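BACKBONE GEOMETRY TOKENS
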Amino acid sequence: MPASPAAASLALAQPPLPTVSTPEKTTLTIIGLGFLALLVAAADADADRARLSLYAALSLVSGGTLAWAWLKYGRQPAGLQHDNLWLRGSTSRGAVAWVTAVVLTGFYVLLYWYSTPDDKGNFGLLNGLVHTLDPFSQLLRQRPADQWFLYGTFYTLAILLMGGRALWKYRHSRYQRLRTGSVMFFQLAFAFLLPGVLQFFQQPEFYFTYFWPLKYDYLFPSSFEYLIRDGQALGVFMVVWGAVMSFVATPILTYFYGKRWYCSWVCGCGGLAETAGDPYRQLSDKSRAAWRWEVRLIYPILALIILVTIIVWLNYWLHGALLGSLADGLYRFYGFVIGAVFSGVVGVGFYPILGNRVWCRFGCPMAAYLGLLQKHFSRFRITTNGGQCISCGNCSNVCEMGIDVKQYAQRGEPIIRASCVGCGMCSTACPRGVLNLENGPREGRYQGSSFIHADSLRLLS
């Protein structure tokens, strides 16, 4: 049956995808062989052979990814190039994207619910991979690896490798280079190496870049007792650090710089989204219905963790007279539904389908807390110059938080949204310099670009 005139015209309107060069195919093949070696390491019962397979896998994946990034972006003129994103199956919810989502989701399901060790130290289907990291774990932490050390290693490696890709891709933008380097540094130094070094010296494991309400249990009585008992003076410092960062430093930093100081420069969740999740940022739903769901979910989740924290403390002060063991059950329920299912399985596993900031946009209580501060008390905003806007839509396409930036730019209105993480990608993608990230005085904050003060801090891409 011949194609309809409409289908024929559409086919003519969409040029064929450019062919992938032979060097790029070679590097992609190397990456594929690396993942195959990873499967071999997971299935091999011989520890030495499995470890060699793991080393080979990490070498192939790392070398192949960095080489591919250079071939893909390093040989082209500097500048943002998002051509053909909606034509490729890997970045437009095609078959490749769905396979990737299934693999990611499957890994998280195995990690959270099918890798709890038994009395013999068997970690289920992940057992082979976990024990291949024993020498590295002993070197860093003076203890055998577990499923969370495996996860932390893979998580950090993903940020570093895809961060390298982002540095090549956005090398023309000083802001993006600094921001990418920042999330790579904080993940490697503060979220991976430092907690391991603390354990090496028999100190409590502690993540200095995670605070309440994201790391909700850091303000629970059980954490206080554990840190002070096992960490002594350092433990007291950790308790004070967590409280000060949550209730003093966070409001002050957000007042001056908006939520971007954390969500786009420090947070590990944001770090993974900005690096490994960067190919999927255009998939974020820009509809008003999605915004309504965002409001319906993220603020009740913040309210829930506040309620859980209050109940846990009241129950502690009353020696269990308030809820008894139910308080612990409430905490475990939150950890399962929000901490595991939402932030892990859905938040990362659904990158290729729903975009790279699903968790940050719809579920993260820290993002909700920072968003309220940013919208109502911060100096941060994105100013626009409507007279220069050509309505190309690049800014809206790259917004990972589902903000229709173009609508603000066309009207010349500043963008002051609780959900904005200040990634600056809209400014980077704009061909006319219409959008500027600024930390100006609060006076005239909601007016257009004609009210910009001379002492505003411009962070141009």
Summary: The first strand starts at residue 380 and ends at 384. The two ends are 51 Å apart (CA to CA).
